[in-house]
Amino acid sequence: MRVNIDKERIAFFSYYYSGNAKPVYEALVKKSLFKKPYWVLLDEEEVKRLRNKGIEAYYYRDSKAFKLFLSTPIWVSTHIEDRFPMPKHKNILDYFKDSLIDFLEIEKPPTSKNIRIREIQLWHGLGFKGWRKDRKRDYLIHSDVYCFTSEFFKNIWIEEFKIDPARIKITGYARHDMLINRSYDSEAIKMEIGVPKDSRIILFAPTWEQREDTKSIYYWRLDKIKEINDFCENNNAFFIVRTHHMQKTGYPKYNFSRFIYLPVDEYSNTMNLLCVTDALITDWSSIANDYIFLNRPTIFIDTPNPFDDDFELLPEDRAGFILKDPNNIIETLQDVFKDKQLFVQQYKKVRDQLLRKIYENPDGNATERCIQEIIKIRDDLI
User: What is the C-alpha separation between 206 and 104, in angstroms, rounded?
Assistant: First the structure.
């Protein structure tokens, strides 16, 4: 069987229609730079949601689509580390190529080298979790281009994975452009998530269990959680609980008047949530380093290092209020709502230092720079 390359095809591979891939895809569509862009997703329900919106999308295990996948010369990815059997398969297309043979019992199609498959890696987070020295991650080294935010992260990948520096581009993260440019409609977002336009939002977004088999997402007993709800009722606020897509342990969803549960698999647009958030509560989640652009209060619940890996960003890089005792959350929120800017001033120095460290050029044009890297790859195919 011969696989013919369609140079108008470009695939976006991720968990959900979100993150750095979403603004790049939408800009490509708006500018008509590719005639046939589509999504390959790790979540089947998200595939259905996109198709209902008229967006071409496929589940990554859809064997009927494997021939299409192999005919697509450019792949834009945010999660190269997920779901593909390693070390047999070095990258996405090797997986599809071998799987197509298995499913359809056909002759082996041309190699990835011959059909000129290219992958551009947008990545998905700037977190505290680092890399264990004894853990092999060979599957991270096969992308043709890596789009990062600063020399700090570039140097980590060069040192840890021996990536050719020429393959690493300092573009910034496309998803941050809307935060930097303030190009969002707060009222529309609040309407979408079901809260009044004049209400305030406290976003609680903890990281997932990491090395622990089970871990409650909550840092409070039920009586304290009720107090949080009472605080929200008295301050025209809503408490949105946002769990990580890797969260394994179930958790109670309390039927309180001011609690709203929006896990990633139900509402994937994290940047929209951040745009309307008045205060963020987290622990070690990288979401704090997205929210930093809005210069609003961040509260870090100070817990022991949850990671099995080393730190990448350090505990002292937490650009927010460090809450030693989670039970003091009500008093801390009172301080936030009393004077947000005064609250933020407490950690201005750390915030400014972190911005310089992890964001080299936060000018709101990261999407365009990522697109230029894609165009260079396409031009190289012609």
Answer: 43
Report the C-alpha gap between 382 and 372 in whole angstroms: 16
Peptide bond into 165 cis (omega under 30): no
Q: Are 76 and 24 in contact (CB under 8 A)?
A: yes
Residue from 242, 333, 252, 329 nearest 287 by CA: 242
**Which tokens in the block code for residue 276?**
């309307």
pTM of the model: 0.89
Helix (H, G, I), strand (E, B) or coil at 351: helix
Q: Which domains does the chain show, CATH number per domain?
A: 9-172+362-381 (3.40.50.11820), 182-358 (3.40.50.12580)
CA angle 151, 169, 274 (to 5 degrees): 75
Alpha helices in 169-221 (DSSP H): 177-181, 186-193
Q: Do the beta carbons of residue 358 and residue 292 sit within 8 Å? A: no
| pLDDT (tens digit per residue) in 107-150 | 444 444 445 678 899 988 888 877 655 555 666 777 899 999 99
Residue in 81, 5, 9, 1 with CA at minimum distance from that of residue 38: 9
Per-residue b or e along 221-233, where b marks 16 or more CB atoms closer than 10 Å to that residue's CB? eeeebeebbebbe
In whole angstroms, what is the distance from residue 63 CA to residue 223 CA?
A: 50
List, in order, residues 6 or more apart from 291 with CB less than 8 Å away: 274, 277, 280, 298
Per-residue pLDDT reduced to its tens digit, 314-335: 999 999 999 999 999 999 999 9
